[in-house]
Amino acid sequence: MRATAENVLLTDLYQLTMLQAYFDQGMDGTAVFEFFVRKMPAGRNFLVAAGLEQVLDYLEDLSFGAEELDWIAGCGRFHQRFADSLGGLRFTGEVQAMPEGTLFFVDEPVVRIVAPLREAQLVESRIINLLQLQILTASKAARVRLAARDRLLVDFGLRRAHGAEAALLSARASFLAGFDGSSNVLAGVRWDVPLFGTMAHSFVQTHDDELLAFEHFARSHPKATTLLIDTYDTEAAALAILPLAHKLAADGIVIQAVRLDSGDLGEHARRVRAILDAGDARAIRIFASGNLDEYAVQALLAAGAPIDGFGVGTRMNTSADHPFLDCAYKLQEYAGRARRKRSEGKATWPGRKQVFRRFDDHGQMAGDTLTLETDSHPGTPLLVPVMRAGRRIATSPPLAEVRQYAKAQMAALPTALRRLDAAASYPVEVAEPLQELARQVDQHRG
Q1: What pLDDT sits at residue 322?
Q2: Are both 430 and 379 inside the same structural domain?
Q3: Between the N and C ends of the chain, which has fewer C-beta atoms within 10 Å?
Q4: Distance, C-alpha 100 to centroid of its chain
Q5: Tens of pLDDT along 99-143?
Q6: 147, 420 in Cβ contact below 8 A?
Q7: 308 and 328 inside one domain
Q8: Residues 131 and 163 grouped into a single domain
Q9: What is the CATH number of the domain that holds 24?
């Protein structure tokens, strides 16, 4: 059996138990589900849509192989007729979605699935799984970019991410949201994410002489030399590389940067900068890493730390301050009739919806309207068709193109929402036609 994330059995058991019950009752009308976020994480002012490409890949490839069907038939929970019915199951539906990189807010549908009930139900768990991870990472990365302003930002989070897929997709999401690149080689191979790398402390420790380690590395990588100088004594190492820098320059090799990874990064950066400048090595940049996030980056730059770039990993790739989203994938229509969940604290707006975004005269986002798909409002509709009859309408855009779109979205973000602390909520109006449909659904359910 496929031991990968692509296995159709990477789902919750209740998806399959519901599918058998639907099968037994002959229920397979058209269902409409929407993915949205119920509540903004505390202190956050916006979220970044991400993960759509992986959702579309998953939907296009959805199928049950022989081993999966054998397991379903033999596990003792399902009958043979149901197992047989899954043999030809494919996703044949439609998808409308916000393009990746779009900024969005509470209750706004990011992805809408319209498909026969069994198909739309089966994909719930994996869609949430794929979208939540990249939305979390992209949203955190966008905040780091705001804090860092124009400084170099590199994703360093592979080793602390929660598994291989999370490491890969978080590298993708952070680049989408404004990072300059990643240390993750496979992200570079798969999506042309620019790759950055320095050295580990172990490389220095394997040499009997620190300066010799630096020279060996520089001569091995003459076009990309960043030296990690805090293995033993940060300032002593900065002093030691001055004659080495001039020696290497005579051979056409340039030390591009030094990296700081421990201690008081701001104070070390100030001391190292002074040493480099005094030694006629002003062109050598300072790159910092070590448990950084948007708050640490903001504090360092606010204090005037002469740092030219940051490697950000653990706290971004795990979205450490808010490691999950209060998000949902909920039924909004079935068999032509609007449906609404009314659970306490988890009520949903029924029907197929659209989000219209308005902009002011300066191109800044001025407010959204959440309404029915059939309604019309001033502004730009955010959900667009991306899949029909189970296949993409067009090829997904290259990641670099998505990144530019996300950058434009961030440029349109109101100034107040760029702060790292909580601001007044962005205005999202629920239009009267949607409110009226909710009243009608509530009255019908009586």
Answers
A1: 95
A2: yes
A3: C
A4: 9
A5: 999 999 999 999 999 999 999 999 999 999 999 999 999 999 999
A6: yes
A7: no
A8: no
A9: 3.20.140.10
